[in-house]
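Quick note —
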Amino acid sequence: MKLDAPEAVVEIARKLHQHGFQAWAVGGAVRDALAGRAGGDWDIATDARPQQVRGLFRRTVPIGIEHGTVGVLAPDGVLYEVTTFRRDVSTDGRHAVVEFADSLDDDLARRDFTINAVAWDPLSGELRDPFGGAADLAAGLLRTVGKPHERFAEDRLRVLRALRFAGWFGLRIDDATWTALVVAARELDHLSAERVREEVSKVLAGTPVASMTLDLYARSGSLATWLPELAATIGMQTPAPAEAVGRRRARAAATEPATADERRDEPAAVARNDAFGLALRAADAVSPARLLLRWTALLHTTGYPAARTRDLRGGWRYVGHERAGAARTEQVLRRLRFSNADSERIVRLVAIQSDLFPPDAPDSGIRRWLAHVTRDYINDFFRLRIALWRAYPVERGDRDLRERWQRAREVLRQRPVLTLDGLAVDGRDLLAAGIEPGPRMGELLRTLLTRVIEEPALNTKERLLELVREAVP
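Predicted structure written out below.
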């Protein structure tokens, strides 16, 4: 079988063969190629030991040499992982103890799912598939290698990996694997936060339709362990807009299930009519290349449970859900050990998600809005708003948002003063004018900034000092 492998992979395999070693392409690239998808990392499995691999290639990196993995830096500038055949000796559900093996079949037998237990010889084109992974891919089926409960007990992260692969490739999880997966999902709290964060991030960054996998998270019970704030929105009504467009017409109770016709051309996951479905659709509406913004869209409804109140007609309102959502989002990100910078950005976007200036706002109103949102958040704010509109569209909403985005950009091109740094005076000027250091000075500077945002022409040293003298007789 001919797969479209990089020339560097073929050359690495050729050199290993020339010195009497086996060389098989394994892992995601082989699986993706069989599924007709481009991408995936090309890894090589061999019976050569790590030191033998390092002796054959001029530029190597011992990236996991104790586990048999050597990075070979090829002429194309890519670091390819070459790993010695291994077999598992023992595992505690998080880490496996392995030993080197001489057989490719031993190495494939320790893989998680049949679709990942396929090897390809880049020189001969031979496909080694002892567990029927290629046939499972063709049939749209996900199965474990061997007994499902044993595979999940060896590494509980395989629960989330199974859901990711099923969502990515549109696979049905076979009954035995699903039953064992649901049981193993109860033990996901034993995983490290970093592994869970990276796995969910792979879901969000790896496919335009992340909702397929995230819906499986909910159905399997996996969501409740690490993302209980999001799980709390399952089954919760969404605030129906006054007018809706497209297939999702606003329903009086917002609980009526979508019809078969409505579901025909969209994934079942996004046909949900609850707040969880709203979050899934919003995440799908953001480009996978914008990972932090996808996280924001996914978590933007987490404040609904805390903010929910009855309106006068007996429906539900969610006034203030943004602030509650920001607090709950911060809990999620702290639990998953996001960096402070990433966490701050996501939480801030959740908090300001609804803070949009009116369509008829004057330039001064837009400047006030820009000062509130700040320059660093403006583009992502509008991208988020457009994603939320796509998740629950209302009449003319997309056009309206783009018009306001354009107006904000037009005002920005005028280079308005939005922060204290842009004022024509600073603390030293106020000192020279007789203002004592302290809270009063800060209050005066903020007042001047407010005046300048309203009237940019005031931003001269002479005029601002005149305003100071008027304020402080």
